[in-house]
Specification:
alpha+beta; about 25% helix; 7-stranded antiparallel β-sheet; 12 helices; globular; 24 strands; 6-stranded parallel β-sheet; about 475 residues
Length: about 475
């Protein structure tokens, strides 16, 4: 909710109403020149998006969350339509038919084609702690916030890919970023829960380093509890990516309040069939589970009938209302280069081969990839030539599994001047060389961003405002200024 000062078009000379309203309506009123933020700190967020048409004065009854009453007010039809769509306003007369507002076009052709076909649009953000959002729980600089322990203040909801979704929604482009990626730098359940408040870990569930992208959610033991997940937006289907191996659980069941989701139960031992990425005798499987009651915000739970389960990723979506789905698979410590020249965590764990990050990405069907790696390579002394080789291998792997997707190489340089994590010119040139040689999408360059003290969590990571600047740049790349 946002507090705004809202003027009535009938009485422009009178004092505005101070009202507490939904964020999307507040943004629409501000962008139509009809309101001003009551809190100056909200100015930038509420101005994200293009100007709205001020024509067709329309009277609506608008809900004021502060006074808990309805207020009759005249606003432009473009603003009235948003109020009605949000369920916070209603027409007092004839149906509201606003002047058409052009819908922004995605600059990436694969995303735009899906948008025009009214299909799911999926963008994956692959990176290290700067993608995962380390420090994002800090609301301003190193100030206290909500997030994981160990001093990291890691709050997934404030990571920059999640802020991209928020900013696109504010511009009228439906997006969501509530997918859960089982990626932690440690095996501390309390840290996982703090950084991802939409999950719950029941008895028998913990974390194990088996590297889809860090420590993976793992069920083992003789006491059977459930793993819970709650979507941020309505969902009737969930793509769940999990490990497959001959000695794992024979029956994994996904349920909600109405009972098991179809096709529960599934056999985690099966390493053949569709949607399985294999390397050797292990794999990652993607299964779509469907609710019986249609889209809702109800939580789902995952249980085992006996045997181990490894959950890598949960992607919720609404088949009745497609939108851009942003999947953040950033893991703190990731680097591009390992001994095989493939995407690797900070130290390559001993794990089933297909569960390693380089292979597991094959289980994700995406339309766009943003690949932001290199800071840890630079800090660990990887040569620029080896970094370029590894980045080439990663891009070729993604091209092989999603040949129609747009792949965006990202130049990352958010560290403070002089930081060992700051990419030097030879690393930045390597990104350009890979993009050109493989005919990838234009490079997204974060090296031009300027950060002040309040933007930084430490000399390497950003606080929420700093990640907001990355998100603004990303939104401009996706749909223009």
């Amino acid at each position: 909710m946002k507090d705004i000062l809202l003027w009535d078009l009938r009485y422009p000379d009178r004092n505005p109403y101070r009202m507490s309203v939904a964020d999307a309506f507040a943004s629409a009123a501000v962008r139509a020149g009809l309101a001003a933020p009551a809190n100056a700190a909200d100015f930038a967020a509420l101005n994200v998006g293009g100007a709205l048409d001020r024509g067709q004065p329309t009277e609506i009854a608008l809900e004021d969350s502060t006074t808990k009453r309805m207020r009759r007010i005249v606003v432009p039809a473009s603003v009235a339509a948003i109020a009605v769509s949000l369920g916070v306003g209603a027409s007092t007369g004839s149906a509201i038919i606003p002047a058409p507002t052009p819908s922004p076009t995605f600059t990436l052709p694969a995303l735009q084609a899906k948008k025009e076909a009214n299909q799911r649009q999926i963008a994956v953000y692959l990176g290290d702690s700067l993608t995962a959002g380390w420090g994002s729980g800090a609301l301003l600089g190193t100030s206290s916030g909500t997030g994981a322990g160990s001093g990291g203040n890691f709050l997934r909801a404030n990571a920059y890919p999640q802020q991209v979704a928020d900013k696109l929604n504010a511009r009228g482009i439906p997006a969501r970023a509530d997918a859960f990626c089982s990626s932690m730098i440690n095996n501390v359940v309390a840290d996982l829960s703090a950084s991802n408040p939409n999950i719950t870990m029941g008895t028998g569930w913990t974390l194990k380093n088996l590297s889809f992208g860090g420590f993976m959610v793992w069920f083992t033991g003789s006491t059977f509890g459930s793993f819970g997940y709650t979507p941020q937006y309505p969902a009737d289907r969930f793509d769940i990516i999990y490990a497959t191996f001959g000695s794992l659980a024979s029956a994994m069941t996904v349920s909600d309040a109405n009972g098991p989701l179809s096709p529960s139960p599934v056999d985690c031992r099966a390493v053949t069939g569709s949607n399985v990425t294999l390397n050797g005798n292990s794999g990652m499987r993607r299964t779509s589970f469907t609710r019986s009651g249609g889209p809702s915000l109800d939580p789902i739970s995952i249980t085992s009938a006996g045997g181990d389960i490894y959950i890598a990723l949960i992607v919720p979506y609404d088949t009745t209302s497609p939108r851009l789905e942003i999947i953040n698979i950033g893991w703190p410590g990731s680097k591009a280069y390992d001994t095989a020249g493939n995407w690797s965590p900070y130290t390559t764990p001993s794990a089933a081969n297909a569960w390693a990050a380089f292979y597991a990405i094959g289980a994700i069907d995406a339309d766009a990839w943003f690949v932001e790696l290199g800071a840890n390579d630079k800090n660990l002394g990887v040569a620029a030539a080896d970094y370029q080789t590894a980045l080439t291998n990663i891009m070729n792997r993604i091209k092989a599994i999603t040949p129609s997707a747009n792949i965006v190489p990202v130049k990352t340089n958010t560290g403070a001047p002089g930081s060992n994590y700051t990419l030097t010119s030879d690393f930045l040139t390597a990104v350009d060389t890979v993009a050109s040689s493989l005919s990838l999408s234009p490079v997204l360059d974060y090296t031009t961003l300027s950060f002040v003290t309040a933007d930084r969590f430490d000399t390497i990571h950003l606080a929420r405002p700093g990640y907001g600047k990355k998100a603004d740049s990303n939104v401009t790349y996706l749909v223009g200024a």
